[in-house]
Write a structure and sequence with these properties.
By secondary structure, this protein is mainly β. It is 0% helix and 50% strand. The protein has no helices and eleven strands. The strands form two sheets. Strands 2, 4, 5, 6, 9, 10 and 11 form a seven-stranded mixed beta sheet that branches. Strand 4 and strand 5 form a beta hairpin. It starts with a strand and ends with a strand. The mean pLDDT is 95.
Length: 126
C-alpha cells in the first residue's frame, strides 16, 4: 500500500506560480510511475504530467508544456509539480497518483493507477 498526500495548492492570479508536492509513504517510490492529474467540475480526471524513470518516461501535457515541470526526490519520497505562468484554465483539483505495475499504454490514463491522494485545489483568477 502507498499513501499519497498532496500539498501546495492555493489561489493565485494569472501569471503566478505554485509548487505542488506529493509525499508518499508505505513504499519506496523509486520504481513507481508517479503522475499528476487535474479534475474540473463535470469532467473526468485528465493527465497533466507523469514520471517513470524505469519506463523511460518523463512527460507533461501539451497544454502545460514550457510552464509546468514535474520532478521527484526518491530519497524524500516526494514528487513535485512546479507550475509557472498559471492561467485560469489551469484551475482544478490536482491529484497525485502512483502505480508500480502500470503499463506504458495506460500510463496516461487514470485507470492505470491504483493509488491516489486526496487532491489539492488550485484556483487561478484572471
Amino acid at each position: 500500500q502507498v499513501q499519497l498526500v498532496e500539498s501546495g495548492g492555493g489561489s493565485v492570479q494569472a501569471g503566478g506560480s505554485l509548487r505542488l508536492s506529493c509525499l508518499a509513504s508505505g513504499r519506496t517510490i523509486s520504481s513507481y510511475a508517479m503522475a499528476w492529474f487535474r479534475r474540473v467540475p463535470g469532467k473526468e480526471r485528465a493527465i497533466v504530467a507523469v514520471d517513470s524513470r524505469r519506463r523511460g518516461v518523463t512527460w507533461v501535457a501539451d497544454s502545460v508544456k514550457g510552464r509546468f515541470t514535474n520532478s521527484r526526490d526518491n530519497a524524500k519520497s516526494t514528487v513535485y509539480l512546479q507550475m509557472n505562468s498559471l492561467r485560469p484554465e489551469d484551475t482544478g483539483v490536482y491529484y497525485c497518483a502512483a502505480d508500480s505495475t502500470v503499463i506504458l499504454s495506460s500510463m496516461y490514463e487514470a485507470r492505470g493507477y491504483d493509488y491516489w491522494g486526496q487532491g489539492t485545489q488550485v484556483t487561478v483568477s484572471s
